[in-house]
Design brief:
The protein is an alpha/beta fold and about 725 residues long. The chain is built from 18 helices and 36 strands. The strands form nine sheets. An eight-stranded parallel beta barrel has the order 1-2-3-13-16-17-18-19, surrounded by four helices. It starts with 6 loop residues before the first strand and ends with a strand. This is 1,3-beta-galactosyl-N-acetylhexosamine phosphorylase.
Length: about 725
Amino acid sequence: MKNKGRVTLPTEQNFLKETKELIDKWGADAVRDSDGTELDKGIIELDTKVYKTYFVARGHNDFIKKHLEEMQQLYLMSKFNTATDKTLEVALMDGYYEEQIEPDYRHDPKKWWEVIDRTTGDVVATENWSVNKEDHTVNINNVEPFHEYTVSFLVYMKWDPTHMYNHITNDWGDAPHDIPFDVRQPNSQAYMKDYLKKWVKENPETDVVRFTTFFYHFTLVFNDLAKEKFVDWFGYGSTVSVSVLEAFEKEKGYALRPEDIVDQGYYNTAFRVPSKAYLDYIDFVQAFVAEQAKELVDIVHDAGKEAMMFLGDNWIGTEPYGKYFEKIGLDSVVGSVGDGATLRMIADIPHIKYSEGRFLPYFFPDTFNENNNPVTEANERWLSSRRAMMRNPLDRIGYGGYLHLAYEFPEFVEYIGKVTDEFRDIISHVDGSKPLTKLKVAFVSSWGKLRSWQYFMVSHALWYKQIYTYQGILESLSGLPVDVDFISFDEIKENGVPEDVSVIINAGDAGTAFSGGDHWTDPKLVGNIRKWVHNGGGFIGVGEPSAVSHQGRYFQLADVLGVDKELGFSLSSNKYFTETTTGHFLNRNRTDFDYGESMKNIYATSKDTTILDYSDGEVHLSSSTYGKGRSVYMAGLPFSVENTRLLYKAMMYAANKEDEYTTWHVTNANCEVNVYPEKGWYAIINNSMEQQKTDVYNGEGKALSYTLEPSELRWERI
């Protein structure tokens, strides 16, 4: 082993000897518990830091059972119910898991619930419906036959979603269900502070208190089969209560409707263009969470310990890129790393002393079993994350779960030893220096900085058919030699495009928060971007950029992009421009492009559009000039080494910097090079599990040939 440190190891009771062995093999300098495990009493024998998991609002059943009125709450929406007569009965719990939630009858349903005719969108008057508490139904009178109706209703959350997930995944049997409490309530707020003060005194061996996380879980609701029904890693559903609604109205001057939360059953997912009311609500919750979390962090600091936050579970309201995060005063954030984008999501967090990534696979029996080789997943995850690490390294890495499971796989133990050594090697070479950067690119969406590196996510780092086409852009960017910023449409509308930005990217399906929806009907936004491109800026659109049907255009920046989408309205207009240009900077030496789900019916708006890939009667790749600026259109961009190369070329071309493309460049797309001028190093990485040969062009345009072994990282002096 070359050195030691910067690695956190999960451990558990009655596993001290083996823990010591793995500390030596992996060079760990910290140990931690996991959900469902306890630290061994002999842990103080180890020459390591000790992290201990701390649950603020769950795992305290003795308290909450005495104050069940302070359980956390949710707004849920019933199924759509079609009326066939003048009356209709709606079963509230149909499709929900009764062990997780129960309707709230403590607070007057007539005041806090809402019945909506979904065919018209009208709210049904309260005198036309009644609640049957015994069988959890709502009876609606004077309905319109063959209209659909829903009920938006408050519930109490009786079982913490993460505890429920772990309970099911790891077969915890009859273990008591953790009941989450709401720290906005008086007894709960006092209890959480008093208990933490007591806890830090009773756990003197703990060096780092790992808050998992603070108060409110991301929205995760299970169905009647005990499977996930609705999951939104950014969802604010669990922050709702009568208390917060009353406090919101008092501070903001207007009342929220249940519909502001349930949002037609979409629950304001990150894909929805957020309403003003929802943005106000997010801001209100974040301010409260930051204030309360700071008090807990101060208690930890007063006890001489560090405060770490887990970026997951109950993280809602603590968004690290939000305007209140700095006020919390955390020492560290740790999060799960699944790929390059999630690594950057953690590594780029401001206002903390150090960042830590929990690498996959998690040491759970679904991965560590006789029918699976966990080395395969570990290698894939490391390679996808490492390329992002070369741009901005984490300060620490670690793992989670049951250590005894990992110990049973010697090949895995050996492989992780190599990973941890390589991680420390990266840190020692980079040593806080900034890698060479070719340009700055800004990703524009409704969310801006708040969702930095988190666009196109549903459940953390999981694959979804409709979004892998767009998430691939972020994954590619995570390891490319560019600076990445995340800005909102409102920022561009008010302030224009930041001066240091060379290229803007707008990507996503029409109507989503990422493409922009009705934002593009704002003449100031469109005018500012047009002017910026005309003066020399670069614009890249993927999928349905700037898309909203308005004033005879679908792509509101069709003049900039040189393409638009046929909706069937302009079929009477001939579209002559289909000739493909070959040998262009973007399609030179390549014709096998992958656009993922792609986009149908894109056509060139004029002869001046350079069509680079045309088939099936539609444009898939094109470029255009606009004044002094340039644009590139792509029908989609899932992650691959080839598409990463295409995106890199597109950015350099749009920025009028294609002449600099071969400065510090590798010819093999399976490899990448990163340069650290301050330290005098450059690093060549093989992102594949096969041997690769490549030429590397240095800063003077000279080429050197290299042969890299599978997954190899090689350091060379400039």
